[in-house]
Amino acid sequence: MQTILLATRNRKKLAELQDLLSGTTAACRFVTIDDVAVRVPEVEEDGATFVENARKKALVLAAASGLLTLADDSGLSVDALAGAPGVRSARFGGEPCDDARNNALLLARMEGVRERGAQFHCVLALADPAGRCETVAGICRGTLLESRCGAEGFGYDPLFVPEGYRESFAVLGAAHKQCISHRAVALRKALDLWLRDGRFCFAGDCG
């Protein structure tokens, strides 16, 4: 059975990825950074784009673990803030990462702003120990509320209402979010591109 390393220690993001992958025909075993026998380095997410960060995480962890690695970088871009918080979404309110502090700062920055358009981005990168890497991207467009609403999800879910809906991701819940989210869009592209006969492979190798 093929083993795929999911390059995250974020338990909520991990659970979301595993749920999204559970309905596939993949004959794979997915493991986390904490499951691998070798020590893998912490990867500083210092790229200027989601693509740079996803590629860096996938390549570094694939080389360190010796496993085919699937990495994700995602975040929220707000129109009125010139794309911020962007790649700094998880650390928007400072270190250590804290969802409540991030949401509070975003609400403060958006106080009195009428144009509340925003979009979630997700880039998935697949890398192998030899240094090959491919990426796919997903976007979910929506608007920001003026106060938090809902208790499910994580990150900016209590503030984000996806296009075509009236409720936040935190109200819609995990099952609904997994059908329409930026990560779901990216993963559907990834499975279409990289999954063949139950195994993950690069597009050029899938034949």
Q: State the total count of DSSP E strands.
A: 8
Number of helices: 7
Q: What's the main sheet like?
A: 6 strands, mixed
Give the number of domains: 1
Q: CATH architecture, please? A: Alpha-Beta Complex
**Element string (H = helix, E = strand):** EHEHEHEEEHHHEEH
CATH topology: Maf protein
Give the C-alpha Rg: 17 Å
Q: Which range best describes the helical content: under 10%, 10-25%, 25-40%, 40-55%, 55-70% or over 70%?
A: 25-40%
Averaging pLDDT over every residue, what do you get?
Answer: 91
**What's the arrangement of strands in the largest beta sheet?**
2-1-3-4-5-6
Morphology call: globular
Low-confidence stretches: none
Question: How much of the polypeptide forms β-strand, as a percent range?
Answer: 15-25%
Give the oligomeric state of the chains in this entry, treating copies of one chain as homo and distinct chains as hetero: single chain
Look at the structure and give the CATH class: Alpha Beta
Specify the structural class. Answer: alpha/beta
Terminal Cα span: 20 Å
What's this, in brief?
The chain has helices at 11-22, 50-65, 99-109, 169-172, 174-180, 182-194, 203-206, and strands at 2-6, 28-32, 68-78, 117-127, 133-144, 160-162, 195-196, 199-200. By secondary structure, the chain is α/β, with parallel strands linked by helices. Strand 4 and strand 5 (133-144) form a beta hairpin.
Features:
globular, 207 residues, 25% strand, alpha/beta, single chain, 6-stranded mixed beta sheet
